[in-house]
Amino acid sequence: MKKLHSDILQMLAGDGRLSAKDMAAALGEDAAVVRGAVEELEKSGVILKYGVVVDGEKIGKDCVQALIEVRVTPKSEKGFDEIAADIGEFEEVKDLYLMSGAYDLCIIIEGKTLREVALFVSEKLSRFESVLSTATHFILKKYKIDGASVRDSGNKRLAVQA
Fold it and tell me: Which domains, and CATH codes, for the chain?
């Protein structure tokens, strides 16, 4: 990978709002060269998406997120890729990873309620013949999201007395 590409990716990872002009000034490059490099990174699939990291609690977003560990039997010739592609088609699936260790796939899903997450597992995941087992872990609180610390806004836990 070109050094310019690497530098641009590092800058955009820190602040996706940076303009080609701003990056060019910081890198000592021409803005047209930087703009062209960004377009090249987008077209080649290196840059998948631009986004914002949001603390949903601070905007009143009510949702339930869960991490689901899945053990599967890989399909001959296609390995894990086919089942991962099929699972990845579901709207609820936010992240999907092939893992080493005790389980094969890690799925992060989002639903409106606990029931919706449970139905995803019982009605959608369970329909795949290659799924051997699942373990669902509900996300209770986030301390860091995509590298950004989530700061408490002064919400203190109530004291529990025996």
Answer: 3-43 (1.10.10), 56-140 (3.30.70.920)
Instruction: Name the least confident of 32-41, 76-85, 119-128, 146-155.
Output: 146-155
- Phi, psi for residue 95 in degrees, rounded to 5: -140, 150
Other C-beta atoms lying within 10 Å of the C-beta of residue 8: 24
Beta-ladder partners of 111? 64
DSSP reduced 3-state for 151: coil
Closest CA to 71 of 118, 133, 135, 136: 133
Q: Which of 58, 53, 61 is nearest to 17 (CA)?
A: 53
d(CA 13, CA 10): 5
Q: Which of 90, 91, 71 is nearest to 136 (CA)?
A: 71
Q: What is the pTM of this model?
A: 0.71
Pairwise CA distance, residues 141 & 138, whole Å: 9
